[in-house]
Amino acid sequence: MSDLEPGVHPSGRNSASAAVDPYVAEYPGVCGGYPVIRETRIPIRLVVQFARDGASVDELATMWPTVTTAQIQGALDYYAQHPHRVDEDIARNESVALTAHPTPTHR
Fold first, then answer.
1. Any idea what the CATH number is for the domain that residue 88 is in?
2. In whole angstroms, what is the distance from residue 49 CA to residue 67 CA?
3. N or C: at which end does the chain have fewer Cβ atoms within 10 angstroms?
């Protein structure tokens, strides 16, 4: 099985038996198993974070030329339906970033 084939979700549910989203998938071993644009390694969390910062669907599609505006909109629609899953990934990445690059303390 390639690492871009849906498999078992980290929560233990089989992603193949879950409702299949045409634009979003979770692959074990890819982006921590969190949601990505289907058949890519583009995390939904990045799409959401850029959109929160004001990027339009068209601008995001320009950033990732192999991704369509329909895929970008599908990622945002997924977030609207599953915010907890994406917010968990955002929090996980922020925590890792803080651990990897701690704020210097003054002595």
1. 1.10.10.10
2. 17
3. C
